[in-house]
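Weekly modeling sync, notes
Attendees: S.R. (lead), two postdocs, one rotation student

Agenda item 3: backlog of single-chain predictions. S.R. asked that every request posted to the team notebook include the full sequence so nobody has to chase files. The rotation student volunteered to paste the first one in as an example of the format we agreed on. Action items at the bottom.

Example entry:
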Amino acid sequence: MLTTVLRVIRQQRLIPPGCTVVVGISGGADSLAQLHILRELAPRCRFRLHAATLDHHLRGEAGAADVRFVQDIARLWDIPLTTGHADVLALARRNGLSIEAAARQARYDFLAQTARAVGADRVAVAHHADDQAETVLMHLLRGAGLAGLSGMAARAPLPGHPDLTLIRPLLTITRAEIEDYCRRHDLHPRQDTTNQDVTYLRNAIRLQTLPHLERLNPGIRRALVQLADIAAAEDDLLTGQVRQTVSQGGVSVEDGRVNIERRRFAALHPALQRRLLAWAVEQAAGSRLDIAYIHIVQAVEVARRGRLGALALLPDGWRLRVDYEMLVIERADAPLPTRQPMPLLETGSQITVTIPGETALPGGWRLIAGQLPHESGKRLVVPDGAPVLLRSRRPGDRFAPPGLGGHTQKLSRWMVNRKIPEHLRDRLPLLVVNGQIAAVIVGETWTISAGFAAPGEDTPGVCFHFRQFPQP
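Predicted structure, as returned to the notebook:
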């Protein structure tokens, strides 16, 4: 077993030479065996140990006796020890946590405090292969993605304290191997009676669910550990693909919000879309959030199909908002934009243009038409009395863009070739004269159809320009 743990430490680079490791110990078989093993390996691997034990104040005198036992072990083995106390019940009530979650938070906070006090950057806990199987099954029952099915990593940031590294040297060792190690080395661990309390989910899985599954498949624990290994590798691949996607542009993080180009997002595989949104929420929030499957699925659906202004609510007061060319991850209470940055129409709409005069459009925009030139205006040939409309596109629309010698092209093909974002195509204003598309308007860019462009200021025509007015 020493050889196995040594190999894991070296392969996973868990403990660099010369560092100090804070080792959590409760007095149970797992943590006692871990401290003994690391004590044996410390001279060979050139690292220092500092033990730490916490009384959770959940077991009265039994918990205090555990602390005394650990103190005796630390003195016997000549290992420095820090002891601590936490009122886990009060912590659970104060933060709305389960007893298990509150105890875990208290332990990690205590271990982090100890590590900083002694100048350590590594914290070792005694999770083993059976714990890994239980964790994967627990996450599976709750509904987990690849990250949850990956279980526990041999090395990871310490939860709540990312400047410190959490290591699990025993993660490939089974509970049976640990118990055998204790017998062979005459170690007499303490027994925690709360480990038999099946009101705790992990205990119920260990004592009831897994034994039942073992009757169906004796190798279920090994299978769950293998699943964790497969999921971890594929989770790492997706995480790398998200980093690559972000590095290629089209994603920005600024002022507590994340912007993602809709065109870039639409081109991604659905799995990468989900992962990118989860990453974006974490970047905006500045920390990892507990984002459920349903939140991500709904957000992706809104991102892919939502109309301008559509919203998807996310946990902890965040939302996704569909903008013109961007998906925006922001606080749910952030003010909604009141101005459209470019003229757009409602899908399927049609508006008669007043010449001369002003024509009101959504978003406070107006199309101003007349004979007088304007610095941002576009002059088009418009026969006297010809009906002029602004409308959105229709199936079968064609027009004659510049460069085709007056030949027409399907509007849909032109939009694809020009890489017009798909979500804008049904809302772009088309200026229609006498039933023909005279111009396609994309923001400040007018693409004027052959036969409608006025070649000079002396050519009779109508000058069009857009102006946006404040909305009440």
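Discussion: group reviewed the output briefly. The first helix runs from residue 2 to 11.
Action items: rotation student to repeat for the remaining queue; S.R. to check formatting next week.
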